Amino acid sequence: MSNEFLRHSLNINRRTFLSSASIGIGSLALGSLLVPDLFSGKSDEDEMLPPGVTHFAPKAKRVIYLFQSGAPSQLELFDYKPMLHKMGGQELPPSVRNGQRLTGMTASQKSFPLIPSFTSFQQHGQNGTWLGELLPFTSKIVDDICIIRSMNTEAINHDPAVSFFQTGSQQPGRPSMGSWLSYGLGSENKNLPAFCVLLSRSKGDIQPLASRNWGNGFLDSIHQGVHLQSGHDPVLYLQNPPGTDKASRGKMLDHIAALNHMQEEQFGDPEITARIAQYEMAYRMQTSVPDVMNFSDEPESSFKLYGADSLQPGTFAANCLLARRLSERGVRFIQLYHMGWDAHSDLPERTRVFTKSVDQASAALVQDLKNRGMLDETLVIWGGEFGRTNYCQGTFKDGNYGRDHHPRCFTIWMAGGGVKPGIVYGETDELGYNIVKDPVHVHDFQATVLNLFGYDHEKLIYKHQGRRYRLTDVSGHVVKGILA
């Protein structure tokens, strides 16, 4: 490069410089507006709290999430609508629907007849909370739970809706809620994972459930959910292969750890550290997992409380009992998925079958935790990914009908862990189609859960590929009205 070229390239006036650099300066200005502390000198590591350190005093130590995959109908179980009975068979008023989005399964329907619930409702508890007749056991704990009737979501199909609830995003790849809490809180028991997953299902059509819903996403793999199965091997590949005893297995793992430490020193990859921790955890789980899944030390009263199904491994009832045992041993996040609630047709029969399989055990879990003095520190959540429409999908036939997906309003309930008991929060219109009071979005729900564990959802962050991520993405507000 010649001296003459350098003199020419450096000989620029202020107007030329500002014109050439305008894009860069504009980007810096925009960045400082979007992220006020962008140039504060603080690193992302400075903002991240060490594991187990919260932003403020937590009310909950652990969570048991009873996820009803497939979407239960709130109109048959929780949201009593006498007007539906009065207007049964009439068309859904266009002013109520207001042109809102429908699924591909009903968008082509020429008629949207309103369908009343086949169940009767009664009032229960000190506040006279309305519940459907198919929930006799839940009605007995109604003074211990908070029913939220104003949940809403943008997701209208199962897979993105489940992903939205579990990860805060309709697109796959984000860390699940259990992974976020594992990342924030760490584990209370070095012999068990901080995040465990249990699956059960009832008869009928079952929507597929992807394992990425309990995945760690971009967090270290030590935070992914560990699926505990009901068979001979609760965790696949955990036990020693034939011909290998515990001592030789331990020596092998020591040598693998030494090799991994060498790689860690050379490359500084945090995933190598996570791999070392996973090997060590797996070794300890060889004893701890069989112990927690062995119900022989449970009194007969436990099986009576949870119901006869609790004697059958892999059922929802058995998983609820197992969840209590895991929570006793310090597991932070226990996720139960009960699959099969989807009811586009034959809803009355399917709802009877499913509520019978989950009602007693769900209520028993809350009562059991309360009896053991654990409910105050254990958050229990019950609900699906969206609700069901107030109109019939397809043709109504002799009391048999189906309901399509309805994201505009649906019901979940929560108990313990700092949640106000015995209340109903939120309200829908008299036809159960829109929310008229205190809406709770999925991100609001997630922000509230993190708050109960002592975290400001806007500050529990993780930087990945140049962006700061959080469970609630860029929205969410704590629902203060349900906090005790």
Which characteristics define this entry?
484 residues; two-stranded antiparallel ribbon; 15 helices; 19 strands; 34% helix
Can you describe this structure?
With 484 residues, this protein is an alpha/beta fold. Helices cover 34% and strands 17% of the residues. It is built from 15 helices and 19 strands. Strands 1, 4, 5, 6, 7, 8, 13, 14 and 17 form a 9-stranded mixed β-sheet that branches. Helix 10 runs antiparallel to helix 11 and helix 13 packs parallel to helix 14. The longest helix is centred in the last third of the chain and has 25 residues. The N and C termini lie far apart (72 Å).
Offer a quick outline of the entry:
The protein has helices at 3-10, 14-20, 22-34, 44-47, 74-77, 82-86, 94-97, 158-167, 177-185, 246-267, 270-292, 300-306, 316-328, 347-371, 442-452, and strands at residues 62-69, 121-124, 129-132, 145-152, 195-201, 226-227, 333-339, 378-383, 387-388, 393-397, 400-402, 405-406, 410-415, 423-425, 427-428, 435-437, 440-441, 462-464, 467-469.
Overall 3D shape: globular
What about the largest sheet?
9 strands, mixed
Structural class: alpha/beta
Per DSSP E runs of 2 or more residues, the count of β-strands stands at 19
Low-confidence stretches: 4-10, 34-38
Give the percentage of residues in beta strands. Answer: 15-25%
Number of helices: 15
Write the layout of secondary structure elements.
Layout: H1 3-10, H2 14-20, H3 22-34, H4 44-47, E1 62-69, H5 74-77, H6 82-86, H7 94-97, E2 121-124, E3 129-132, E4 145-152, H8 158-167, H9 177-185, E5 195-201, E6 226-227, H10 246-267, H11 270-292, H12 300-306, H13 316-328, E7 333-339, H14 347-371, E8 378-383, E9 387-388, E10 393-397, E11 400-402, E12 405-406, E13 410-415, E14 423-425, E15 427-428, E16 435-437, E17 440-441, H15 442-452, E18 462-464, E19 467-469
Parallel strand pairs: 1-7, 1-8, 4-14, 4-17, 5-6, 5-7
Antiparallel strand pairs: 2-3, 4-13, 8-13, 9-12, 10-11, 15-16, 18-19
Helix pairs in contact: 10-11, 13-14
